[in-house]
Amino acid sequence: MNVKALEFPPQTFDVVLAIQNGISAFKVAPEIVIQESLRVTKYKGKVLLSSYSEKIWEARLEWFLQQAKAGLLGEIDLEKTGNGAIIGKDDFRATTFSREDFQQLVNKLGLEAIIEEVDNSSIFCVITVNHTH
Fold first, then answer.
1. pLDDT of 6-57, one tens digit each?
2. Are 45 and 129 in contact (CB under 8 A)?
3. Does the model's pTM come out above 0.90?
4. Dihedral of the CA atoms 109, 25, 15, 125 (nearest 10)?
5. 3-class SS at 23?
6. The CATH number of the domain where 112 resides is what?
7. Relative to the CA of 125, which of 17, 18, 93, 98 has its CA 20 to 30 Å away?
8. Rg of the Cα trace of the chain?
9. Are 105 and 113 within 8 A, CB to CB?
10. All residues at 6 or more sequence positions from 109 whose CB lies less than 8 Å from its CB, including other chains
11. 35 part of a folded domain
């Protein structure tokens, strides 16, 4: 499925999820991920996005290192890794969105959202669709 052009008609779903960095996992501009998610979400439905909190950086990095060690990912480039981004020597890139990043993104798109950190581990951004497409 192509996140830039989902194969669903407009207003198909009550809720669309892009959790734990789904907004950055597709190698597509986050604005496109949100706009296409909004397109397929019903009026008064919700688009729920999440990312990892910087407060769990060490645990998150360790998890990626273990995945690389098990052969599930390529080797992590520790010289380039940091500031919320985990970079692989094979150009793999896992980034995060902070509360401020989500706020800037929804502001740029002229949207309103509830943005909250939960359990010192995840940042959630919830957008309610307030118009028909």
1. 999 999 999 999 988 888 877 889 999 999 999 999 999 999 999 999 999 9
2. yes
3. no
4. -50
5. helix
6. 3.40.50.150
7. 93
8. 16
9. no
10. 31, 34, 35
11. yes
